[in-house]
Each structure stands twice: as C-alpha cells, then as structure tokens.
Amino acid sequence: DGYRYILAEADPHAPHKQEFDESSEMAGKPIPGFLCRALVSQSLLLSFQDRAQQINLSEDRLSLTGYKFYCTARSNHSVSRGAWFFETRITDLPEGAATRIGWAQKYANLQAPLGFDKFGYSVRSKKGTKFHESHGKTYSQGYTEGDVLGTLIELPEIRGRDYLSKSYKDKPLIKFKSHLYFEEKDRQAEALKNLKPLPGSKISFLKTGNHWERHFRIYMS
C-alpha cells in the first residue's frame, strides 16, 4: 500500500513525557511521535510483525513453519557491518517440500521466496541452488531434515557512513490492535535504484560436516 509500519514502544527518556501524561488537554488526541521509539527487543528472535502471515511461529519464536507456498520471515534485529553468523536446524521437511535460508534487506518481498528480488539472498534445500533476483544456480549439495545450515555474512565498514539506528520520531504514529506503529512511506523504488555492490562483502554457507562455500557478493544502497 506504499507504506511500511515499524512497531513502537513508549520512550522513557522522551522530553516532556511527564507533562504529557499528566495533561488532561491531550486526552483523546494523537500521541506525538517524539514520545515513542522503535521497539528494540533485548533478545534475538523471529519477528512476529516482520513476516508473511502464512508463516507460523513457535511460542518461543525460535522456529517457524511455512504452509502452502513460499514466503519469508525475518528476525527482529538487523546487521549493517561486521561479521555475523547464525545456524538453522531443519527439523521437518516433508517429501516434495523445500526451504530457502539466507539474508534479506528490509525491502525484500515477504510474500515471495527469499532471493526473489534484489534485496534477498538464499540457498534452497533442493539441489543447493542459490537464489538472488530470481536467478538460480546449483552451487553445492542441498540440505534436508536433520541437517544444520550455518549462514555467515561479512559486511565491511563504510567510511563516513552513519550507522546509528533510525529513530522514526518524526513519523506519524498509527494504532492497530492495541499496538503503536510508526508509519513510513515506502521508498523501495528509490532504494532499488541506489543499490551498488559492496566491495569486500560476502555471504557464505556451511552444511554440517562440509566446508564454507562463498555464494554471494552483496548489494547495498
């Protein structure tokens, strides 16, 4: 619909917070954005909000199950520089099913398989096919039920780049189902136009008992 929604929480350090809470004149009026901040979880989990609704999360949000067709889920934390690694254990993979594991930027389409567009990079369980921008190439052995797939991303620091997290405090707040969200205009087309290869970046995968294999160079805006 042309907009993105970022889950918000009350900012305990916001200026004039007490005055606003105690003012009867503000009752029933929109909450100013500066009183909230983007929610920052203390734990690394699968995101309940940042996923396709067809994906079911476990109660502890450490595992997921997909149904019917390919779609995507992301975690509740992102990375922008340095080397980061996570492991995924395939606990159930019925005959005829497949999965893709990898990394997605914020504009990657959640209603499509990871690697469908230029914002996602993945390796598929079937035949070990790597995908980026819907181009597939069989690169290594696949993985299946019982396997553990390690995923490593390496992002060199860009000199002069601001790595502080975005505050969104200048954005309007929207209330939906008892939660507050910052509303931000979708700039996917602009981000796509500005994508460029990031020198020194790479994504590598390691299946249980195998060696690291480099699969991708990364595009960043």
TrEMBL record:
It holds the Pfam family SPRY. Coiled coil: none annotated. One of its GO terms (cellular component) is Set1C/COMPASS complex. InterPro entries: ASH2, B30.2/SPRY, B30.2/SPRY_sf, ConA-like_dom_sf, SPRY_dom. Signal peptide: none annotated. It comes from the Eukaryota. Residues 23-210 form the B30.2/SPRY domain. Keywords: Nucleus. GO terms for molecular function: transcription cis-regulatory region binding. It is found in: Nucleus. Its main location: nucleus. This is B30.2/SPRY domain-containing protein. It comes from Caligus rogercresseyi (Sea louse). The lineage of its organism: Eukaryota, Metazoa, Ecdysozoa, Arthropoda, Crustacea.
